[in-house]
Design goal:
The chain has about 160 residues and is an alpha/beta fold. Helix content is about 40%, strand content about 20%. The protein contains five helices and five strands. Helix 1 packs parallel to helix 5.
Amino acid sequence: MEQQLFTDDYFMKEALKVARKALELDEIPVGAVIVNQDRIIARAHNMTEQLQDVTAHAEMIAITSASSYLGAKYLTGCTLYVTLEPCVMCAAALKWARLDRVVFGAHDPKEGFTRLQESILHGKTMVVPGILEEPSSRLLKEFFRGRRDVDPSPDQP
């Protein structure tokens, strides 16, 4: 039996590489890649600190990059791989971009779009949660653990 090279795990590992770049830049380590016909057409990570822009999430930057690459506003035939479940803002943008699939690693119970009763993604978009969830979660925990050690909240001694 032939083993497929380009799997969800393969592309999520690519998104994790991008997330590690964000960590090096002291950004929240979320990485995203957009794939079309087994080819990565966009790579992005959170840039909210660097750009001083609250909308500069990995997904938003990846959508813009992929649309530019394809010369199209719709990303049909594409899959987004992102290390953290998209927030409601990003999910709304993904709806309008009309991706075929959204694959994410770590769940985000506080800000993730799946906490809503009804999906806000395009009706034809397939969602695949929890791909490489453990390494995605670990990267985020490492980032926030470092933040708490350096910058304790006012409530903590």
